[in-house]
């Protein structure tokens, strides 16, 4: 009887639709949507009018016209007669080059420093801590400037270049390395490397299956190293050493030959790698500390040696904690590579900035930037998500 | 009955023995922490060698050989470069920093009006320090003064235009002042805006949810440089003719929007960490949406993500240096600008200026991170798992 009373009450309480969350939700959404449409319409009409007045034709036709400016670092053919579209491609490749090199170095340095912060050695621990605390707390742009204006531009003129070992030179136009010139039959070495990679993959699978079946471990690591070095070396010998070095020579005013790594690239690369490495170090440290102590103790109790413990027990579990934030650091590095514009390394943003100044196609250029960076971010996240899923805990 | 009771009960405790000398002396500490094994010893020796190789020249450059006084570039240039120093000299040129110090703080702000900046700075630190010290009472009043009254006061003081104060256009602003203005506004805008975005992202309303997701993901996916470019070249296109925005204001909008997207993700992390029971508990008490959020969820969620919030603040403080790229002179920008000042241009000037700017940035960022650790400990009510 009481229950009927309550239900009756409920019926009368819901009389006012004004207090119904569903109705309110719909009203809010309609209002927001209408506001958004109005805003977009207002912005679009203003933009069209402004563009019309400034006599700028919208659209991407400008990508086919002559660029007329030079680019400092051109990984693929480019002259000032090339099109804007090609300039953008150069910029994109340069962004990818510096991001890739930076990610590689930052990961290695970051892992070393992160492990160093957990070392039993007091001195190593403190050095790593000082490194992390310094680099985490200053802007990356400042680090780039420091390398560019503070270090590389005060190096001697090419005439008084600093001699480095192995025929390399260092001066204020960058670092000059001997360039490898591959001769006849070098393709075989590349094939040998590919074969070695496939062989390692097969060996690993076979060793895993054998260990699962019989419990017998197999020295996969040493076999892999042997394959990776041995096979290309064999190919190298078989083809008769098809490698010569183009060593830079000191000319009257500049160095001739060799491989020039420009100071712009060098500053950006060093700054981004060492800046991001400080963050990666903290992520690695947190990851390793995040593995419960019982895991270490249990693996000791099972009789695993310290090296085996960290390789088989700690690192695989720490990787699960490390990978997601590591991904966002990689993305940050890629995005920070846009700071290239401050020192004139021709990345996507720098090239785009020049195009923007020349053509006034602000919207199109910004859209290209956004699409490329969003694409790069998406690509990196997809890859890291796949890697993360592979590493993730397999639960029953 | 038994004559000879052989049982023995000790009635008093033996005093704790001192640890063996081999365990507590300096030697033991060194053995344990530096030379525990062969690998350890090797690493220590390598590290020592590296320190001995790098540290003395660095200290020498920074302090011993450094030039502290001087009026122009000759004091910091070698004889071959037309200065007074010996030819093999290399050292920091602190004289440059000393003579440009005021410019590094306020940029090209007119000299006669600089007292206004000093007063504003004094008010800023005078309100911020009691705000951040837990033992000082009247936090509510302080917050109103800091976030409500101070911005108006600072705007009037810095920009002028009323009360007989001369107008100082923003292109003349610069140095640490611009860095702090950008960060203060960025922090004050991005936290509330980020919370709103995070709530929107977890909302049940599809339109609002997708709007928030789009905004957050697009902004997080592109570099700040792009956002700043957008604010500086595209904003004027979006507005009707004749309406112009101040350049500083455009940079402010860019930085604040960018930081909001990151803040939203941090806050979302906190919201997701709150157990469902808390939401349901609030619902069952009959609280409305905003009551539920303000009284139950957000206080817990924000406390959980203090480190993330402060990290975002630190990131934003560092990112303000990027406004240099769109032609504004914050601390880093003004230091960079002075490299080309012919009175002081020398081989040592850039490095010295950058070390100085780096030190200032470092102090602020390091201070923020230490404060966040302190706050985290203080607010820790023991509910953390």
From TrEMBL, chain A:
It comes from Zhengella mangrovi. Belongs to the binding-protein-dependent transport system permease family. HisMQ subfamily. It is found in: Cell inner membrane; Cell membrane. The chain crosses the membrane at residues 26-44, 87-113, 134-155, 186-208, 220-245, 265-284, 366-387. SUPFAM superfamilies: MetI-like. InterPro entries: AA_ABC_transptr_permease_3TM (IPR010065), ArtM/GltK/GlnP/TcyL/YhdX-like (IPR043429), MetI-like (IPR000515), MetI-like_sf (IPR035906). NCBIfam families: HEQRo_perm_3TM. One of its GO terms (cellular component) is ATP-binding cassette (ABC) transporter complex. Coiled coil: none annotated. Residues 92-384 form the ABC transmembrane type-1 domain. This is Amino acid ABC transporter permease.
UniProtKB/TrEMBL annotation, chain B:
One of its GO terms (molecular function) is transmembrane transporter activity. One of its GO terms (biological process) is amino acid transport. InterPro entries: AA_ABC_transptr_permease_3TM, ArtM/GltK/GlnP/TcyL/YhdX-like, MetI-like, MetI-like_sf. The chain crosses the membrane at residues 34-55, 115-132, 144-165, 171-199, 211-236, 322-339, 351-369. It is found in: Cell inner membrane; Cell membrane. It is a multi-pass membrane protein. SUPFAM superfamilies: MetI-like (SSF161098). It holds the Pfam family BPD_transp_1. One of its GO terms (cellular component) is ATP-binding cassette (ABC) transporter complex. PROSITE patterns: ABC_TM1. Keywords: Cell membrane, Membrane, Transmembrane, Transmembrane helix, Transport. Gene3D superfamilies: MetI-like. The keyword Cell membrane applies. Belongs to the binding-protein-dependent transport system permease family. HisMQ subfamily. NCBIfam families: HEQRo_perm_3TM (TIGR01726). PANTHER family: INNER MEMBRANE AMINO-ACID ABC TRANSPORTER PERMEASE PROTEIN YHDY (PTHR30614:SF41), MEMBRANE COMPONENT OF AMINO ACID ABC TRANSPORTER (PTHR30614). This is Amino acid ABC transporter permease. It comes from Zhengella mangrovi. The lineage of its organism: Bacteria, Pseudomonadati, Pseudomonadota, Alphaproteobacteria, Hyphomicrobiales.
């Amino acid at each position: 009887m009481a229950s009927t009373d309550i239900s009756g009450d409920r019926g009368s309480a819901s009389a006012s639709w004004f207090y119904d969350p569903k109705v309110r939700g719909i009203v809010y959404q309609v209002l927001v949507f209408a506001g958004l449409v109005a805003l977009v319409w207002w912005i679009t009409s203003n933009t069209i009018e402004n563009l019309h007045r400034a006599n700028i034709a919208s659209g991407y036709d400008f990508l086919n016209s002559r660029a007329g400016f030079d680019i400092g670092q051109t990984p693929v053919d480019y002259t000032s007669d090339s099109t804007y579209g090609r300039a953008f491609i150069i910029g994109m490749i340069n962004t990818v080059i510096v991001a890739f090199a930076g990610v590689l170095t930052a990961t290695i340095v970051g892992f070393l420093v992160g492990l160093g912060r957990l070392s039993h050695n007091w001195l190593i621990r403190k050095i790593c801590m000082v490194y992390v605390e310094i680099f985490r707390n200053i802007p990356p742009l400042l680090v780039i400037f420091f390398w560019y204006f503070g270090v590389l531009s005060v190096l001697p003129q090419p005439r008084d270049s600093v001699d480095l070992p192995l025929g390399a030179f260092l001066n204020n136009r960058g670092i000059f390395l001997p360039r490898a010139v591959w001769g006849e039959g070098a393709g075989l070495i590349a094939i040998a490397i590919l074969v070695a990679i496939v062989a390692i993959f097969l060996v690993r699978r076979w060793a895993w299956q054998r260990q699962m079946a019989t419990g017998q471990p197999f020295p996969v690591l040493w076999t892999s190293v042997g394959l990776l070095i041995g096979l290309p070396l064999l190919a190298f010998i078989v083809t008769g050493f098809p490698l010569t070095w183009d060593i830079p020579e000191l000319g009257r005013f500049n160095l001739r030959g060799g491989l020039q790594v420009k100071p712009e690239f060098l500053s950006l690369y060093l700054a981004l790698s060492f800046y991001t490495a400080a963050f990666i170090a903290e992520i690695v440290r947190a990851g390793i500390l995040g593995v419960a102590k019982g895991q270490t103790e249990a693996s000791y109790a099972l009789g695993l040696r310290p090296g085996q413990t960290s390789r088989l027990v700690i690192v695989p579990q720490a990787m699960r904690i490390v990978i997601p934030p590591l991904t966002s650091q990689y993305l940050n590095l890629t995005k920070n590579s846009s700071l290239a514009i401050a020192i004139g390394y021709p990345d996507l943003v720098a090239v785009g900035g020049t195009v923007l100044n020349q053509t006034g196609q602000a919207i199109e250029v910004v859209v290209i930037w956004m699409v490329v960076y969003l694409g790069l971010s998406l690509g990196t996240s997809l890859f890291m998500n796949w890697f993360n899923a592979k590493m993730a805990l397999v639960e029953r | 009955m038994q004559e000879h009771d052989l049982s023995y009960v000790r009635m008093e405790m033996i005093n704790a023995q001192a640890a063996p000398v081999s365990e507590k002396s300096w030697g033991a500490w060194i053995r344990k922490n530096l030379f525990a094994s062969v690998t350890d010893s090797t690493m220590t020796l390598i590290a020592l060698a590296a320190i001995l190789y790098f540290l003395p020249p660095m200290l020498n450059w920074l302090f011993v050989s450094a030039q502290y006084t001087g009026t122009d570039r000759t004091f910091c240039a070698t004889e071959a470069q037309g200065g007074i120093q010996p030819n093999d000299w290399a050292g920091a040129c602190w004289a440059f920093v000393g003579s440009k110090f005021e410019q590094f703080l306020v940029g090209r702000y007119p000299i006669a009006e600089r007292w206004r900046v000093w007063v504003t700075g004094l008010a800023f630190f005078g309100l911020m320090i009691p705000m951040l010290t837990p033992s000082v009472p009247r936090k509510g009043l302080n917050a109103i003064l800091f976030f409500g009254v101070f911005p108006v006061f600072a705007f009037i003081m810095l920009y002028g235009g009323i009360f007989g104060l001369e107008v100082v256009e923003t292109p003349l602003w610069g140095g640490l002042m611009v860095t702090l203005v950008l960060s203060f506004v960025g922090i004050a805008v991005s936290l509330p805006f980020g919370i709103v975005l995070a709530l929107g992202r977890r909302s049940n309303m599809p339109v609002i949810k997708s709007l928030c997701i789009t905004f957050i993901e697009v902004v997080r996916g592109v570099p700040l440089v792009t956002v700043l470019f957008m604010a500086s070249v595209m904003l004027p296109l979006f507005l009707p003719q004749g309406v112009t925005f101040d350049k500083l204001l455009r940079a402010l909008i860019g930085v604040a929007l960018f930081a909001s997207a990151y803040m939203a993700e941090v806050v979302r992390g906190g919201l997701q960490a709150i157990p469902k029971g808390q939401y349901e508990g609030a619902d069952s008490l009959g609280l409305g949406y905003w009551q539920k959020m303000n009284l139950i969820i957000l206080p817990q969620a924000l406390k959980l993500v203090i480190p993330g919030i402060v990290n975002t603040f630190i990131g934003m403080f560092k990112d303000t240096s990027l406004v240099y790229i769109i032609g504004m002179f914050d601390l880093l920008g003004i230091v960079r600008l002075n490299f080309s000042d012919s009175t002081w241009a020398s081989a040592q000037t850039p490095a010295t200026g950058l070390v100085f700017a780096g030190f200032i940035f470092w102090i602020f960022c390091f201070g923020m991170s230490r404060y966040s650790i302190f706050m985290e400990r203080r607010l820790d009510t023991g509910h953390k798992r």
